[in-house]
């Protein structure tokens, strides 16, 4: 049984090796869920990994010594009042145990405190389980679609969660 104590922490650039390790685990575990490819990411240099910290916030979830979840939040380059969630992953052994909820709740709080009014994310249209989970967390479809980067023929859907003055009842209702 997995360790029940979950610790969330914002990673610092000096922890780029930890980020690399868990990110590569995620890409190996769920290659179909990401636009990035394991082999390409594995070839990134230290400088490239460190630059990702300039663009956003990396959160890691640990249960004991093991990294069990990861999430990345970046500012929308054209609309600074919006942050986008990317690279979200939970280790299979810890799914359906609140890790995703904890990661997203932490990012919501950080965004809310920074005056962000919307969190957005893109999810593969055929990833019904992820779409359902994000829906239960309060994300709603925007109607926007696009081609999944690096995955010909696959479509992504945009979902959003309104924050602050747009607070909605049950925004983070129970996840079953």
Structure description:
The chain is an alpha+beta fold. The protein has one domain: 3-Layer(aba) Sandwich (Aminopeptidase). Helices cover 30% and strands 31% of the residues. The chain has helices at residues 16-29, 38-42, 46-55, 99-113, 128-136; strands at residues 6-10, 56-63, 66-75, 82-90, 118-124, 140-147, 155-162. It has a 7-stranded mixed beta sheet, sandwiched between helices. A hairpin with a 2-residue loop joins strand 2 (56-63) and strand 3 (66-75). The longest helix is centred in the middle third of the chain and has 15 residues, at 99-113. It is globular, with a radius of gyration of 16 Å. It starts with 5 loop residues before the first strand and ends in a 14-residue tail after the last strand. Residues 167-176 have low confidence and may be disordered.
List the helices and strands and how they pair.
Layout: E1 6-10, H1 16-29, H2 38-42, H3 46-55, E2 56-63, E3 66-75, E4 82-90, H4 99-113, E5 118-124, H5 128-136, E6 140-147, E7 155-162
Parallel strand pairs: 4-5
Antiparallel strand pairs: 1-2, 2-3, 3-4, 5-7, 6-7
């Amino acid at each position: 049984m997995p360790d029940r104590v979950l610790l969330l922490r914002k990673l610092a650039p000096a922890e780029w090796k930890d980020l690399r390790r868990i990110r590569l685990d995620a890409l190996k575990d769920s290659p179909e869920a990401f636009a990035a490819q394991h082999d390409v990411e594995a070839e990134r240099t230290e400088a490239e990994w460190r630059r990702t910290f300039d663009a956003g916030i990396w959160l890691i979830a640990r249960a004991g010594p093991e990294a069990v979840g990861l999430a990345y939040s970046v500012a929308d380059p054209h609309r600074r009042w919006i942050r986008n969630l990317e690279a979200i992953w939970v280790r299979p052994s810890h799914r359906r145990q609140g890790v995703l909820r904890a990661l997203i709740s932490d990012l919501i709080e950080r965004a809310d405190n920074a005056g962000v009014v919307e969190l957005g994310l893109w999810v593969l249209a055929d990833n019904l389980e992820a779409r359902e989970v994000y829906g239960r967390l309060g994300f709603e479809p925007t109607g926007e679609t696009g081609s999944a980067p690096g995955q010909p023929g696959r479509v992504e859907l945009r979902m959003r969660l309104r924050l602050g003055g747009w607070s909605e009842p049950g925004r983070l209702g129970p996840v079953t």
